[in-house]
Amino acid sequence: MAKTELRGSHGPAPDHVLTRWIGIENLARIGVYEKQGGYRSWKKAMTELEPAELTNEVKISGLRGRGGAGFPTGIKWGFLPPPDGGPRFVVVNADESEPGTAKDRYLMENNPHQLVEGILIACRAVSAQQAWIYIRGEYDLQHLAVQAAIDEARAAGYIGEKPYGVDFPVDIQLFRGHGAYICGEETALLESLEGKRAQPRSRPPFPAVKGAWGRPTLLNNVETLSTLPWIIEKGGAEYAKFGTEKSHGTRLFTVSGDVRKPGNYEMELGRPFRDLIEGMAGGARPGRKIKAWWPGGSSAPVLTGDLLDTPSDLEALAAAGSMGGSGGVIVADDTRCVVRMAYRLMQFYARESCGKCTPCRVGGNWAVRTYERVLSGHGTADDLALFDRVQSGLAAGRCLCGLGDAAGWVIQWTMARFREEYEEHCLRNECSVEGGGRAQPLPSTAASGDLPPPEGRKLAHA
Ligand SMILES: Cc1cc2nc3c(=O)[nH]c(=O)nc-3n(C[C@H](O)[C@H](O)[C@H](O)COP(=O)(O)O)c2cc1C
Hints:
CATH topology of the largest domain: Rossmann fold
Bound molecules: flavin mononucleotide
Oligomer: single chain
CATH architecture of the largest domain: 3-Layer(aba) Sandwich
Number of helices: 18
Strand order of the largest sheet: 6-5-9-7-8
Helix content: 40-55%
């Protein structure tokens, strides 16, 4: 495991960048937000700093995208070509569809003005006068909260023709998402925003060069943008003091699953996951042990329970064999069958495949049917090889977007790290976790719970 030095020089870890004001009554109202110092960074961005200086501050901060890939935010901003007089856009990824992730909704619900202020700063930095927030269709409350914040900011003149008297007309509009996981993938999101079916585009060109309606577009996640008011207020160098050498600042984690206190917790990057899972989220239920956990949403490779001391920075996670992903930490204790969990996740990825790439469209369903056969007590040694074949056809960048990779990793890493459970199911048709003996039948609602073994194959337990 990589050794990680925290860089925080402010005494105890700050843990209060994004959530510093959350808990103050009526923070979603503009007057309360302003009273804390809200919109001061927007004023600074308009009256004291040039757009290039804003980008530079973000580069200095070392902030990395919180949507999944962890790409350095300031560097991404620098990819937009110089203004040519035509339209340019900021697009906010508020789709938040990664399983186990609910931190963007928390930010939108509890501090919508922080997001609005962050979006405005990004608009100024890349000279975009129109921002779109692509918000997950199911997020009703959050939609209302953000719309109310936009309306208040417009009435106060922060959004409009001449914020702070500067000739920079800027507007923000909300667009409700279309209810599919793929809509969170940046290029599929842009297709959907343009009124088309959400399917990924091939890259290059990247959205910075050719994004919404073919124009230069900056696309960032809600949490990424919500961090900007703090960075512009205090300076990039101040932010860079927190975290590790390569993963600066804090992150808002969602902890779900078999813990006593599931919820959203902000933590300095580099602190061990044990602080988050056992400390903040209360650890396993009484008498239970954490067996498996996904550190970055279900699309990140699963880790075993003995790795809770892994530091939370992106480099340490990569060294441990996983990734930071969306920051959704899913915890499973020793009452869960890993094969059954993998099956549940594969159902999700198979159903959510947009169908554009063949490995993803075909492989996901193939895997689901294999899991159903195995979990129905009809597994054979051949199924181990079959799982392997399907995962290698899915993962390793064979698809246009990361959905195929994620589906492949579910099989690959649950099998690599919990091989004995796959062998129990496939070789002996047993499950030592659930019921301690014969594999339990799938619920009768499962698509093909009674699926017979393929022709000519001998049942291992027959
Ligand atoms: C299948 C798939 C789903 C995704 N869903 C989301 C999502 O719901 N929210 C999000 O911010 N990023 C999501 N992403 C990542 C985005 O494509 C993109 O990298 C991110 O929004 C960029 O913002 P950032 O640089 O601020 O992280 C998804 C990626 C894939 C491959």
